[in-house]
């Protein structure tokens, strides 16, 4: 089927991948199989879709741009099990798409919603085998950042709590149309069978990490004042003079579990 003209839309954060070498490299990194449940977010004009569906004929795609949806349905009409979900990925219940098979999620994610979308997808990790995403290079670096680095923050902690992070390869602006003003990268996120240290309440961990990095230049002692009394902070078996970016995922989990225990005892 011949290509058609579709102007990329800023409001959808569209940058269409056009480099065939990179497209093939992404498909090989995913390595989809016919028996798997693969979902692609933001297929655009179907560049990656074309290779994924050849390996997984019952592919599902999530697309928001209503002008692209008829084109995708016609382009892949020879695959009767191909399904286009016309919706915003931020509103999709990915758990419902899994059925009785773990999901494999692939996407060239719009940079303007990449962080909230990642947090949305993390809520389904129990039903996910792995995720392969094209993202702004800076976002991928933040995901895999180690404590003590400038890139380490809320995104690093919440992603690393749930998943192993693999930085696969870079993708330059020239690989897209239109070319973005930033470099991109491919990342693989593989949900952990069990977290390295289990948190007792995920919402408390998120609340703690959000508070800590809302003022990342301040010490933990200062940011904890939003969440617990001065007396409770003084009694912590933890050096609260440290800055948030020096505190590991496991240490944040320990603090979150302690905060939960204080709240349950009514002494936070």
Q: What this model shows, in words?
A:
This protein has 268 residues and is α/β, with parallel strands linked by helices. The protein has two domains: 10-191, Vaccinia Virus protein VP39 (Rossmann fold), CATH 3.40.50.150; 202-265, Helicase, Ruva Protein, domain 3. Helix content is 37%, strand content 18%. The strands form two sheets. The chain has a seven-stranded mixed beta sheet. Helix 1 packs parallel to helix 2. The longest helix has 17 residues, at 249-265.
| Percent range for β-strand residues | 15-25%
Extract low-pLDDT stretches.
8-13
Specify the CATH homologous superfamily of the largest domain: Vaccinia Virus protein VP39
Count every helix, treating DSSP H or I runs of 4 or more residues as helices: 11
Order of helices and strands: EHEHEHEHEHEHHEEEHHHH
Give a quick summary of the entry.
Helix content is 37%, strand content 18%. The protein has 268 residues and is an alpha/beta fold. The strands form 2 sheets. Strands 4-3-2-5-6-9-7 form a 7-stranded mixed β-sheet. It has a two-stranded antiparallel sheet with strand order 1-8.
């Amino acid at each position: 089927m011949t290509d058609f003209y579709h102007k990329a839309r800023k409001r959808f954060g569209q940058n269409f991948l056009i480099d065939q070498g990179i497209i093939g490299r992404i498909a090989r990194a995913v390595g989809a199989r016919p028996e798997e449940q693969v979902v692609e977010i933001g297929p655009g004009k179907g560049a990656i879709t074309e290779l994924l569906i050849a390996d997984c004929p019952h592919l599902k795609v999530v697309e928001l741009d209503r002008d692209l949806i008829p084109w995708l349905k016609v382009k892949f009409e020879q695959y009767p099990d191909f399904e286009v979900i016309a919706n915003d990925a931020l509103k999709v219940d990915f758990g419902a798409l899994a059925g009785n098979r773990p999901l494999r999620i692939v996407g060239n994610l719009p940079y303007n919603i990449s962080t909230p979308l990642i947090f949305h997808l993390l809520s389904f990790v129990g039903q996910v085998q792995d995720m392969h995403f094209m993202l702004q290079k800076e976002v991928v670096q933040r995901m895999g950042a180690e404590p003590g680095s400038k890139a380490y923050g809320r995104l690093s902690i919440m992603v690393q709590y749930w998943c192993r992070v693999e930085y696969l390869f870079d993708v330059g602006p020239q690989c897209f149309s239109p070319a973005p003003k930033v470099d991109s990268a491919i990342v693989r996120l593989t949900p952990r069978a069990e977290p390295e240290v289990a948190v007792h309440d995920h919402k408390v961990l998120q609340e703690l990490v959000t508070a800590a990095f809302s003022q990342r230049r301040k010490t933990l002692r200062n940011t904890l004042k939003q969440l617990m009394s001065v007396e409770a902070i003084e009694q912590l078996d933890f050096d609260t003079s440290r800055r948030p970016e020096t505190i590991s995922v496991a240490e944040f989990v320990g603090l979150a579990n302690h905060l939960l225990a204080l709240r349950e005892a009514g002494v936070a």
